[in-house]
UniProtKB/TrEMBL annotation:
Organism listed in the record: Paraburkholderia phytofirmans (strain DSM 17436 / LMG 22146 / PsJN) (Burkholderia phytofirmans)
InterPro entries linked to this entry: Ald_DH/histidinol_DH, Ald_DH_C, Ald_DH_CS_GLU, Ald_DH_N, Aldehyde_DH_dom
Protein name: Aldehyde Dehydrogenase
Family: Belongs to the aldehyde dehydrogenase family.
Active-site residue list: E257
Length: 482
């Protein structure tokens, strides 16, 4: 493992990593710093279909040796990646804060988590086992084993570029697969930093490949290529549908982890201060750009006004500024398209009659960036701002008559990623946990308070396919007579 801080994590232009070498691309783009558009992160290269094919073919060629190699070799490589990430978490955290606009503490947390995920995957690599099944016949043994899939295409979003990539790349490699990784277009530096660390972990050429570029060209080609044996996608439901169609057309394994419009219920018996704090962090933390963000706050009538007043007061105290500035509570919106989307939805909310209590404007700061004042609406369940995923610091409060009404509102959504409730009633908490239609549920915690070593879950438009470790390998049942 190379811990030498003199080895730069990234050098401009940021290049693809294909078949064990750094490659230039067909065209170039620039990765911007959303806190300061005059301080770009770096130039990066963009692949075309031909170069995407080269990466997939390299991964395919490397698969046999890698998949038949020892579990210890995989574990050692993953452990080395995790160790270097943890040793360089400050560099990674600063890079992430610059490229995505997460505050430095948030970015350091993600960088640390990403390193820990690789360590966890290293342990996972050693855990493959054979499961015996009793045979109905004397003298016959039945063993169930799991085998690697082949080339796994990994398509990632910009919102958690280190943690999402770590979880998918780590799991794919731990189970003996080869990887072609396509990050979001706006996070090439985080991807190149990760690839740089992976390149020093002793993997055979072709086992891990990074290809940067557009979703329409690179992402679509990965999903459609005949040698891609499985696709792991994280991103919006709209793009997920396209990826699913490509996978179904070839009948290959696919995993989609998509968006949410997550409900957070506050009952009249809740610890109100704790509930407001959990709503603030769940709805607005990381500039609201988390799939688990609680964008629908469903509050029982008796505490509606005090809840709304307390949340507004907390929002008024947030410092929204450069992600690397000490004391910043909320960094900028990550990119121009997302800023435009936030402003559009503020207009839509007002046009539909939702009451904008505060925020919703672009802000000016000392540096030129995508700063946005977090918005709070009071709305009705049918408003688009209460139904569609915005993926920004915009929350809508809905009034609930009682617990049953709150549960009904919580489930009245096309999505099913996560849901939270604040209550002191054990009965209500247990009922909600059982009857809310989501893959993740939190009780007296923000909806975002989830951990990466537990399965992700997700239902309805939020997920498709296995989202646990079963995705990364295929079952083989052997019948053996002596
Ligand atoms: P997106 O859907 O726009 O893009 C995701 C990825 O798909 C990018 O790499 C993009 O380049 C690629 N892509 C675009 N078009 C493609 C195509 N036709 N074929 C193949 N790939 C294509 O999403 P985004 O804006 O990057 O990320 C935000 C979304 O991600 C939100 O909806 C958020 O909820 C979701 N998300 C979900 C989770 C989760 O765990 N469920 C985690 C993080 C983010």
């Amino acid at each position: 493992m190379n811990r030498d801080p003199l080895v730069p994590l990234v050098a401009s232009p940021l290049r693809h990593y294909i078949n064990g070498g750094w490659e230039t691309g067909a065209t170039t783009g620039v990765s911007l710093n959303p806190s300061d558009l005059d301080d770009p992160v770096g130039e990066y290269v963009r692949a075309d279909v031909r170069q995407t094919d080269m990466a997939i073919e390299a991964a395919h060629a490397a698969f046999r040796e890698w998949s038949l190699g020892s579990a210890q070799r995989r574990a050692d490589a993953l452990d080395a990646i995790g160790s270097e990430m943890l040793a360089r978490r400050d560099e990674l955290g600063r890079l992430l804060a610059r490229e995505v606009g997460k505050t430095l503490p948030d970015a350091l947390t993600e960088a640390t988590r990403a390193g820990q995920i690789f360590k966890l995957c290293a342990a996972e690599a050693m855990r493959a086992f054979t499961e015996p099944v009793a045979s109905a016949r004397a003298g016959v043994e039945i063993d169930v084993t799991r085998e690697p899939l082949g080339v796994v295409g990994i398509i990632a979003p910009w919102s958690a570029p280190l943690a999402v990539a770590a979880a998918k790349i780590g799991a794919a490699l731990a189970h003996g697969n080869c990887v072609v990784f396509k990050p979001a277009e706006s996070t090439p530096a985080c991807a190149a930093a990760l690839a740089s660390i992976i390149s020093r972990a002793g993997l055979p050429a072709g086992v891990f490949n990074l290809v940067m570029g557009s979703g329409r060209q690179v992402g679509a080609r990965i999903a459609a290529h005949p040698l891609t044996a499985a696709i792991s996608f994280t991103g919006s439901a709209e793009t997920g549908t396209r990826v699913l169609q490509a996978a179904v057309a070839r009948q290959v394994r696919v995993q989609l982890e998509m968006g949410g419009k997550n409900p957070f219920v506050v009952l009249a018996d809740a610890d109100l201060e704790g509930a407001v704090e959990a709503a603030l962090s769940g709805a607005y933390g990381a500039t609201g750009q988390r799939s688990t963000a609680a964008a629908r706050l469903i509050v029982e009538g008796a505490v509606f006004e005090p809840f709304v007043d307390a949340l507004q007061a907390k929002l008024a105290r947030l410092s929204i500024d450069h992600a690397l500035k000490h004391g910043t509570d909320m960094g900028p919106v990550a990119n121009a398209a997302q800023l435009e989307r936030n402003l559009d939805y503020v207009r839509i909310g007002q046009q539909e009659g939702a009451q904008l209590l505060r925020g919703g404007r672009q802000l000016e700061r000392a540096t030129r960036g995508y700063f946005f004042e977090p918005a709070l609406f009071i709305g009705e369940p049918e408003h688009r701002v209460a139904r569609e995923e915005i993926f920004g610091p915009i929350a809508v409060v809905l009034r609930a008559d009682d617990y049953d009404h709150a549960l009904h509102l919580a489930n009245d959504t096309a999505y099913g990623l996560c849901a939270g409730i604040c209550t002191r009633s054990l009965n209500r908490a247990r009922h909600f946990r059982r009857h809310v239609h989501s893959g993740l549920v939190t009780i007296n915690l923000p909806t975002t308070a989830v951990e990466h070593h537990a399965p992700g879950g997700g239902r309805k438009a939020s997920a498709y396919g296995a989202t646990d470790s079963a995705f990364w390998s295929a079952v083989k049942t052997a019948y053996v007579a002596g």
